[in-house]
Amino acid sequence: MSLVMRIVGALVSGIVVSSLKGGWRKVTGEAPPKANDLDVPVKKTLLWAMVSAMAVAGVEVLAARAGAKRSKPFSKDEGAGAVIGEIES
Asked: Three-state SS string across 19-80, please?
């Protein structure tokens, strides 16, 4: 994956986590739990960890796939010649 795609993925991951934190606050009325906060039940902390990890992993998968599509070389049938051929037909 290119450096640009990694940077974009990191930025989008940050935005997703920020949005999740806002959503968590809206739903629960509390800030997302921290792993070392012993006053928060383990179930709530694990739920936050799973939700945030799944969201970030999903963004990474989408970024990797977008990067793979962009870096995939044109096949014989997908090149500029194929597009020009379609226009002339």
From this structure: HHHHHHHHHHCCCCCCCCCCCCCHHHHHHHHHHHHHHHHHHHHHHHHHHHHHHCCCCCCCCH
Neighbours of 51 (CB within 10 A): 14
From residue 83, how far is each of 43, 68, 71 by CA, in Å?
55, 21, 19
CA 13, CA 10: separation in Å to the nearest integer? 5
Q: Where are the domains positioned within the chain?
A: 3-88
The span from the CA of 5 to the CA of 15, in Å, is 15
Task: Summarize pLDDT for 41-63 with one digit per residue, the tens.
Answer: 999 999 999 999 998 888 888 87
Reported pTM:
0.66
- When pLDDT is averaged across residues 10-39 and rounded to a whole number, the result is 91
